[in-house]
Amino acid sequence: MRTKDIVPASAAGSFYPQSRAGLEGMLDALLSKANPPALDGNIRAMISPHAGYIYSGQTAAAGYRLLRERPYTLAVILGADHHLGFAGVSLFLEGKFATPLGEAEVDAEFAQKLTHKDKDIFFEPAAFSGEHSLEVQLPFLQRVLKNFKILPVIMGQCGFGLCLKLARLINDAGAGRNDIIVIASSDMYHGYDVAEAERVDRLTLAAIEKGSPQELFDGLRDERFQLCGGFGAVTALAFAKAAGCANIKVLDYANSARVTGNKEQGQWTVGYASVAMY
After folding, report:
1. Rg (CA), the chain
2. Are 211 and 248 in contact (CB under 8 A)?
3. Who contacts 13 (Cβ-Cβ below 8 Å, separation ≥6)?
4. Which parts of the chain have pLDDT scores under 70?
5. Distance from CA of residue 181 to its chain's centroid?
6. For the domain with range 10-192+199-255+268-273, which CATH number is right: 3.40.50.300, 3.10.105.10, 3.40.830.10, 3.30.930.10?
7. pLDDT at 2 (0 to 100)
8. How far is it, in rounded angstroms, from Cα 39 to Cα 245?
9. What pLDDT does 116 receive?
10. Which helix (H) or strand (E) is 198 found in, with range?
């Protein structure tokens, strides 16, 4: 994969419908049903889940409904590394990402402002191949925003300092702009204990609402909290803090046991949350 390539949709037909009509219908139904609390302020960052839409789509819709009709022109998507296994942060510098709803263009000018700033921030094309954590955010964005570009980012293994560095770079590159939204793509608890899922996710969300990137990072490192996109969430919190956000609100929470109704002990369970920083 070269940096100017069009990245094809790999999750269509599995994580979400493959046809344009089917995807539009599903998104419109999810967004129509979503009932997030009204927020008084400019949303600068979110945490959004990335499972199949039949599981986490309704939770994701709670956040995306609040973005509708807002004048965002750039979405920085902090995806999680599910396949490659690498250290550092990979930025996609130039090109487009395809979904059944069309192509989302990478903001090459903004991407250049973040490159060559740190040896651990680079372009690794293999990080983007088949990475659903990025892709599942795109159809929602395409449905609620107009005339926007994206900056796709995959977070590999990161230290706390690198998360802070990336947050500062994004904030500095967008200084004076209120049309940028940072989206950390992350699911929550993964395991076989429904009660444990509820307990751990409550602790994780409480830590997020405190707004301390350090506390969240330490809790993830010590395995008191769970986020499969934890480095992105830490970075989003740090960005929100740098951008002057004084409020953090959990918009919706669910898990696969709640969604399917199968709460049998020993059933594989994944947690989902939509969180706004404003």
Report:
1. 17
2. yes
3. none
4. 1-4
5. 10
6. 3.40.830.10
7. 57
8. 12
9. 86
10. helix 194-210
Q: What is the pLDDT of residue 5?
A: 81
Task: In whole angstroms, give the CA distance from residue 104 to residue 97.
Answer: 5
What are the structure tokens assigned to 40, written together?
A: 């008084």
* Unique residue bearing structure tokens 């920085």: 76
Residue pair 76/180 in contact by the 8 Å Cβ criterion: yes
Q: How far apart are CA 158 and CA 127, in angstroms?
A: 14
Residue of 65, 68, 63, 74 lying closest to 181 (CA atoms): 74
Distance in angstroms (rounded) separating the CA atoms of residues 196 and 6: 41
Question: What is the distance between the alpha carbons of residues 276 and 39, in angstroms, rounded to a whole number?
Answer: 9
Q: Which residue, 255, 147, 277, is CA-closest to 191?
A: 255
CB atoms near residue 39 (< 10 Å): 14
The closest alpha carbon to 77, from 170, 173, 171, 152, belongs to 152
Q: Other CB atoms closer than 10 Å to residue 244's CB: what's the count?
A: 9
pTM for the model stands at 0.96
Position 1 scores a pLDDT of 60
Asked if 93 and 112 touch (Cβ cutoff 8 Å), the reply is yes
| Dihedral Cα 129, 106, 119, 137, nearest 10 deg | -60
Q: In what order do the strands lie in the sheet with 102-105?
A: 6-7, 96-99, 102-105
**For residue 231, which amino acid is it?**
F
How is residue 11 annotated by DSSP? S
Beta bridge partners of 269: 191
**7, containing H or E segment:** strand 6-7
Query: What pLDDT is attached to residue 85?
Result: 92
